């Protein structure tokens, strides 16, 4: 028997044994509450919902409004379209490529890459 095959079989058995052992240990314990501990009151359902649902929802709304408000003030449009979006040039001129100078001659330095030796 090859040592690699033997090692793989041992490792598979060890992983399977570890998984079974973890499942056996994870069963719930049948223990009573210790005598010195108090019995806590039940939690109000509205308090639970506000803690788990309403507070994170309010925080999300505040974050979304914080991000969107400057764009709304500037007059940006946030319309959703199923069509393919226009290409976007981040950091480029606001009115598009109309502001860029066009190359008017072969010696022009406007636009594109030029390599010279």
Q: What proportion of the residues form beta strands (DSSP E)?
A: under 5%
Helix content: 40-55%
How many beta-strand runs? 0
Order of SSEs: HH
Poorly predicted segments: none
Count, helices: 2
Instruction: Specify the structural class.
Output: mainly alpha
The gross shape turns out to be flat
Over all CA atoms, what is the radius of gyration? 33 Å
Mean pLDDT: 78
Description:
This protein is an all-alpha fold and 117 residues long. It has a domain at 43-76. The chain is 45% helix and 0% strand. It contains two helices and no strands. The chain has helices spanning 3-25, 45-74. The longest helix has 30 residues, at 45-74. The protein is flat, with a radius of gyration of 33 Å.
Offer a quick outline of the entry.
By secondary structure, the protein is mainly alpha-helical.
List the defining traits of the structure above.
single chain; 117 residues; mainly alpha; 45% helix; flat
Give the topology, please.
Layout: H1 3-25, H2 45-74
